[in-house]
Structures are given as structure tokens and as C-alpha cells.
Design a protein that fits this description.
With 334 residues, this protein is mostly beta strands. Helix content is 3%, strand content 51%. The chain has two helices and 18 strands. The strands form three sheets. The chain has a twelve-stranded antiparallel β-barrel. It has a three-stranded mixed beta sheet with strand order 1-16-15, with no helix packed on it. Strands 17-18 form a two-stranded antiparallel ribbon. A hairpin with a 5-residue loop joins β17 and β18.
């Protein structure tokens, strides 16, 4: 399928809401910027080695949990520009169009869990629209969606692997998928392949401030939909999403899609982003020093993640009286 200028404006055949069900989404737990301490515990520091790997996404710091919620604003498309190490991406010009609110719930609470037996989480976007997700320590899968008001269902018998863990700079994966799409009596067979590449890390400039230690993930999804008795629809969707560990929702994403609807070629580009009011983004702004500590609050263990161009590092943990309780030294390579 060639990449031609759009002749008509129709959305890609992928349902628009599907964009919210791909990749690790959600928000971190609410907490303050300080690590709570107790004389009964010493903090055991787990270092992430300074290297060119940048930030690392994993199941704990990136996969949403039941009860997480978010607000996402639509935006005009901004060219995501090249990837690479230690890049600064300027998205200060993001626009604010419509918005959508999502809440992560248990699959059983939706009334549609039977159709998605492997689901570990469901995303409730309101008005009977649900996305179903399965996740583990090493992956996140999109299982499909239900839109109760229209009777539309999408079910992937071979799910879409939207993220792999751990995911850091230059992590890649490719996953074929297949499923069925049913709406208004029309049944469609879906097949496709998604390829992901964490192709950059660095700093993102948002309309409300600067976020450091961000990992960019580029996915390319090629899909074919065969409509019984009608014909086929082909699409290619490229998405660049920007993630910060500890914020369980992409800070922003930019999507470009090209669709061939039985010979009619269309293009569409759009973006989405979460505002500063979302929990965790304020902390990312106030603590933009290139070092992240999580979980926060903590009891007996925290992880300290940082980037470095090499050299030595000395880190100290002080108790409530100002005495050095723990000291660690680390030498890294650029």
C-alpha cells in the first residue's frame, strides 16, 4: 500500500478508542515528594547502573493498576523528530482539543469479562466503552474492546503485544496478531503485525514545563481487515509515545495513520497528552534533576534511577539527625 495524500477525510478503520488500550497507560499512586523514613528501617538502595540505556520501563513502574485514572487531551499533530540518546523533544506547542477520562477497573465489573478470559485489567472510558488488557512481568497485551451502545466488539484471539518489559533504549519486539471485529451484523477478520522500538531517551518540553528522564517508544502497526462479502481494508499506523517510569500513562503520543479503504487512500495525524494536573507529573516537574526514586513513599527498599555520561558517583542516605546511614559508590561507563 502506497503512502498517498488523503483524498477524503475518514478516520482509520481502527476504532479511535483503541489508541487508549495500547501500551502501558494510567497514573501513579498519589504520594508526596518526600520518602517517609522510620528509625526501624534502613533504606536498601537498588542502583540502576549509569549508562546509555536511559530510563527503563518495567511492570512495576509502568503498568496501570485497578483504580488508576487519567485525563487525556487531543492535540494537533507535531512532528516527533528523530530519536537517539539524550534528545530534547519540544512539544511546548501542544494544543488542547477534546478530552477523555479513563479509569482502570476489574474485568469482572464491566459485565463483559467472559469474552476476554485472559484479561487482568479493563479500561472504562464511559458510555459502555471498555478496553481489555492482559499484563505480566514481561509484557502488556491488548485483548480487544467492547462498545455496548453500538454493539461493536473487537476480540483478539492472538493479542497485540503493545509493550515488553524491561523496556529501555534500543529494546525491540515484533508480534503478529489476529482477531475478529463485529458491528451492525458485519463480521471482519483482522490480521496484522506490530513492531516496537524504544528509539530514544532524553527530555520532553511540555506546555506546562520540562520532564526529564523520558523514554520514547515507536510502534509500527500494519493491519488488514477483511469484511465478508465486501472487501478488504489495509492500514499502517505509526505511533511515537513518550514514557516516564513511575507515571503509568504515556506523557504524550503522536500518531500518523494511512488507510486504504478498497482503493481510497486516506491519511490522518493526531496527538494526545496528559495535563500537569495529573498525579505524578507535578512531581516530575519539581524533581527534574535527572534522578528518580521510587516507590515513594517507601518502607524498606527504593530504587534510584539516573542517567550518566560516565564517571564515578557517590550517594548517601541520611537519617533524621543528618548522619550518613548508607553510602554507596558506583562507577559507570558512558
Amino acid at each position: 500500500m502506497g503512502l498517498f495524500r488523503a483524498r477524503t477525510r475518514i478516520r482509520p478503520t481502527k476504532h479511535p478508542s483503541e489508541a487508549f488500550f495500547q501500551g502501558p497507560l494510567g497514573l501513579p499512586q498519589t504520594h508526596g515528594p518526600m520518602i517517609r523514613s522510620s528509625s526501624a528501617f534502613l533504606l536498601c538502595i537498588a542502583f540502576a547502573a549509569p549508562s546509555a540505556q536511559g530510563q527503563t520501563l518495567d511492570h512495576t513502574n509502568s503498568t496501570p493498576q485497578v483504580g488508576d485514572s487519567f485525563i487525556s487531551h487531543e492535540s494537533e499533530y507535531i512532528d516527533p523528530s528523530p530519536g537517539g540518546p539524550e534528545v530534547t523533544w519540544d512539544f511546548s506547542g501542544l494544543t488542547m482539543g477534546g478530552s477523555i477520562t479513563g479509569t482502570y477497573v476489574t474485568p469482572a465489573s464491566t459485565g463483559h469479562a467472559a469474552g476476554y478470559p485472559g484479561a487482568t485489567l479493563a479500561l472504562d472510558l464511559g458510555n459502555g466503552l471498555y478496553g481489555f488488557i492482559a499484563s505480566g512481568n514481561e509484557w502488556v497485551d491488548d485483548l480487544g474492546i467492547v462498545e455496548a451502545t453500538s454493539g461493536m466488539t473487537i476480540a483478539y484471539q492472538d493479542p497485540i503485544r503493545t509493550m515488553v518489559y524491561p523496556c529501555s533504549y534500543n529494546t525491540t519486539w515484533t508480534d503478529p496478531y489476529s482477531g475478529t471485529y463485529s458491528m451492525m451484523g458485519l463480521d471482519q477478520d483482522l490480521t496484522g503485525t506490530i513492531s516496537g522500538h524504544a528509539d530514544g531517551y532524553g527530555t520532553v518540553v511540555m506546555p506546562y514545563g520540562t520532564i526529564t528522564n523520558v523514554l520514547r517508544v515507536r510502534t509500527v502497526e500494519e493491519r488488514v481487515q477483511v469484511i465478508a462479502g465486501v472487501g478488504s481494508i489495509e492500514s499502517v499506523t505509526i505511533t511515537h509515545s513518550f514514557h516516564k517510569p513511575g507515571i503509568r500513562h504515556a506523557l504524550l503520543s503522536m500518531t500518523a495513520a494511512v488507510t486504504d479503504v478498497m482503493g481510497t487512500i486516506t491519511e490522518e495525524q493526531y496527538g494526545s497528552w496528559i495535563p500537569a494536573e495529573e498525579v505524578g507529573v507535578h512531581e516530575a516537574l519539581h524533581e527534574a534533576i535527572g534522578i528518580d526514586v521510587f516507590p515513594n513513599p517507601a518502607t524498606d527498599q527504593v530504587a534510584v534511577v539516573f542517567g550518566s555520561g560516565g564517571g564515578s558517583l557517590r550517594m548517601q542516605v541520611l537519617d533524621g539527625t543528618g548522619r550518613v546511614a548508607i553510602e554507596r559508590r558506583r562507577t559507570g561507563q558512558p
